[in-house]
Structure formats: structure tokens, C-alpha cells
Amino acid sequence: MNLEIKDNVFIVSGGSKGIGEGITRAIVAEGGIPVIATRSTEATIRISGELSKTSNKHHYVIGDLRDTEFCKKIIDETVEKFGRIDGIVNNAGVNDGAGLEAGPGAFRKSIDLNLFHYYDMVHYALPFLKESKGSIVNISSKVALTGQGGTSGYAAAKGAQLALTREWAADLLKYSIRVNAIIPAEVMTPLYRNWLDTFDNPDQKESGIKSKIPLGQRMTTTEEIASMVVFLLSPKSSHTTGQIITVDGGYVHLDRSLT
Ligand code: NAP
User: Fold this and answer.
1) Total structural domains in the chain?
2) Pairwise CA distance, residues 181 & 193, whole Å
3) Which residue in 49, 55, 63, 131 is a FRET match for 103, CA 20 to 30 A apart?
4) Which of 189, 205, 218 to mutate to test the pocket of ligand 1 (most atoms within 8 A of CB)?
5) Segment 65-113, tens digit of pLDDT
């Protein structure tokens, strides 16, 4: 299937590591132009060097998404360089373990880290998304549906992203801008690795989790998440909006007796 996104411009927050890196690469594979917005300088320079060896156009902007001015700069630079924005993938986030014991300060910091930039990116991109009849994809988490324990801030932010997906889908119908969310569950990324390494026996924890994933007893790959994201960015999903799609091998929804 040709996804028909050649030369379309998509901003991917956190687009040089983990799931975001997968999305950047999938956009490139379809002939689209990714703009990586992240604080991960080293990883971004590595990917940019790789992409520069091909004919694919791309761009990156380095900074911290908690800074609203940085979010505005991403949009300004993208428009200056390419003259258009066809989609936003809100992906950057950190499961920072700000639980009930951590206190109000940690809770607020966690929301700052995981939520406000999802709004800021869409706010600043809106005039250009109206022009392109663009698409927005919010990467949330299974934690929004299942809880995890010990991570109030992340859970609240991930839940709010789902609420905003429905709210924006309704709000932006009049501009034919589509808004959807993806829920990953267990995907091996640098973030996930860090989390696993907090356990006494990470290997045992990892195989325990895998054994409970119904489809194939394995983790979801970043490519599998990215394929769904790029489909939702593309005109091939032109009548899909306000949807919350769980890409997790059946982990969250299938009958537990299966595993
Ligand atoms: P990751 O490997 O840590 O990659 C995320 C990237 O975003 C990193 O480069 C990170 O930089 C960057 N980033 C985070 N906060 C930022 C900020 N404030 N400003 C600029 N850049 C920032 O994470 P991932 O596992 O791919 O997760 C991507 C998304 O999927 C997140 O929203 C996460 O909640 C969601 N998710 C992941 C899983 C999973 O199994 N991996 C499951 C459910 C949901 P640093 O490396 O410097 O932090």
C-alpha cells in the first residue's frame, strides 16, 4: 500500500529514541519528511547523519519540550524550512514514578514532563494543520487504562492525553483535522530498559511480562507501533478520528485465562 505521504512534513516529539525513532524511520520509509523535536542530542545527531546519506529530507530541533517557547520554535523552524506541517506526533514522555508518597511538587513536575507539551505543540501548529487538513497522533500508555502503581503523575498525564484526543477530534472536525491516540503496553526502548533495570532481577521480570502477552509471548516492536502511527498520519485513514488504538498483542484487553 502506498500511504501517499511523500514530501509531507510530520513533527515527532522524542523522535530519535525508542518509539519515536521507529516513527521517524517509518515516515522516512514512506517518503515523508520527519522533524525530530527532542532533548536527546547524541541520538539525534546519529540518526540525522544516517538520513543525510540518503535522499530523504529531514530536520531536527534540540531542546526541552517543557519550555513552551521551545515548542513554538519547533513549529516556526519547521514552517520556515518546509513551508508546511501535515501532522504532529506527540510522543515524548517519561514514566517518572511520581506516586502518592512523592508529594505535590513531584506530581506537578510529572504533569509538566508528560502533558503540557502535547497541548503546546498542537496549539502552535494549528494554523498550519488547518491549511493541510493535517493529522495528530498522541502516544499515550496502557497505564492510562490499567494503572501501574507508584506513578500518579504519569498516569494522570496519559489519561489526559486520551481525553484530549477525543476533545480535539470533536473540536477540529470543522477543519477536517483528524486526531487519534495509540496505546502501547510493553515495547523495549531506552525508557523501558531503565524501568526494567530498577528491579532486582530484570531478566526474570522481563520474561514474566512476556509470558503474559497473548500474541506470541513477546514484546511489541517499535516498528509495529510506528506502522500504526504512520497509517493514522496518512490519508489512507481519512475517515478515522477520535480513536484510541491499543497496539499491544492483546495484553490489555484479551481474556487473562489465555496466558
Ligand atoms: P524513550 O525511549 O525514553 O524515548 C523518548 C524520547 O523523548 C527520548 O529521547 C527522551 O529524551 C525524549 N524526551 C522525553 N521528555 C522530553 C522533553 N521534556 N523534552 C525533550 N525530549 C524529551 O521512550 P519510549 O519508551 O520510546 O516512549 C515514547 C512514548 O511511548 C512515551 O510517551 C511513553 O509514555 C509511551 N509508552 C511507552 C511504552 C513502552 O513500553 N516503551 C509503553 C507505554 C507508553 P531523554 O532520553 O533525554 O529522556
Assistant:
1) 2
2) 23
3) 63
4) 189
5) 999 999 999 999 999 999 999 999 999 999 999 999 999 999 999 999 9
Same domain for 140 and 164: yes
Give me ligand 1 centre to Cα 54, in Å: 26
CATH number of residue 170's parent domain: 3.40.50.720
Give residue-wise pLDDT tens across range 18-29.
999 999 999 999
d(CA 129, CA 88): 9
**154 among known catalytic residues:** yes
* Beta-bridge mates of residue 220: 187
Count, residues in the chain: 259
Do residues 143 and 203 both lie within one domain? no
pTM, rounded to two decimals: 0.98
Domain check: are 136 and 209 in the same one? no
